[in-house]
# Entry
Amino acid sequence: MEIKQLIMIEQLNLNFTGGSSHLPLWTNPNDKWATILWKKLEKNVLNIQKRIYKAIKAGKIGKAKKLARLLLRSTSSIILNVRRVTQDNKGKRTAGVDGVKMLAPKQRLAMLNELILQAKRGFKGFKAKPIRRIYVPKPNGDKRPLGIPTMKDRVIQGIVKSSLEPIWEARFEPHSYGFRLAHSTHDAISLVFNSLNKKQKWVLEADIKGCFDNINHEKLLEKLDGTAKKND
# Structure
């Protein structure tokens, strides 16, 4: 499949490929995957995410949902998430139940083609494959269960995350630092230091035992409130 045949579902007039002058130094000039103009894709996705964020802040929920659905079908987002999962992330060396890992550029293009066709259909009929369960040793001697999805399912998770993230970033509390983009432990430490530096205060430390093991998934899906399409 030629990269130039990838048509933006959102009908934006962008060319994702360029000449050899655009190639990073580490790429193979004969590799079509390497000719993608990544900055254009990143800019396109970021622009839609900004529009979603602004719509939520302005109380235009309907507009935000339409933009979120647009981003779910965005070729830009699909290509970027394929790269993150199959090329950038360390997890590219870890296979799911299908045994697929370490994809070559031609295999990435094949996955792109499949995902773009599924996106055009709104991911109707998509079924995630079972996760591969492994157990990671903990410092106290126990083992923590870890579920590993297939590479394709990880890409689709990333596509959905790209769509939901700006919605919830606009709704989260300003001092919530867990598992958030551009928020880190250092930010939390800085806030605590500045809060306690001038006046003595009480500090409450709490840990919810087995939070992610026991959390109610149905309640989480209800929280999405239609911001992402759910398939049976």
Summary: Confidence is low (pLDDT under 50) at residues 1-15, 19-27.
